Amino acid sequence: MADGPESRFAFTKLVVADLARMAAFYEDVYRLTEVGRYGGEVAGHPIDEIILGRAGASSGLILFTFLDRDTPTTGELLLGFTTDDIEALFERGVAAGGSVWADIKDPDLPGVALVGFLADPEGHVAEVVQSAGAGQG
Question: HSE (CB half, 13 Å, CA atoms) of 97?
Fold first, then answer.
């Protein structure tokens, strides 16, 4: 096993065109409930998200929409990983042929210290989250 930061698969983001309609679908069909919302910017594009899950679950489905562009027909799924050292993980990803899709930043969200987006060599995107307190001695 290689040295460096550990990572854990944490969530899935589905890029959708109609955020409200899709949230209603996943709530009705899968009995998921809204546990949060987030609006921000990713790679220079404004976005909105609805986080769906179940009480007590540590992972969930996040519905994600771009506010200023059409829904892509590829890249409509974002993988989610957590790590204790996001900068080291990004360095390892770039060294392995990946690329930074959106720089690491502080999203000003409770419990989240840093977030960034890393693309694999084929362009598949993962959102990487470092929790508050992680990697801080």
Answer: 5
Give dist(CA 109, CA 100) in Å, integer. 21
Q: List the 61-66 sheet strands across, edge first.
A: 33-42, 45-53, 61-66, 7-15, 77-83, 125-131, 112-119, 99-105
Mind listing the pLDDT tens digit for each residue in 84-115? 999 999 998 999 999 999 999 998 888 889 99
The yes/no answer on whether domain 7-131 falls in CATH 3.40.50.920 is: no
- Counting Cα atoms < 13 Å in the Cβ hemisphere of 133 gives 2
pTM: 0.67
DSSP structure class, residue 96: T
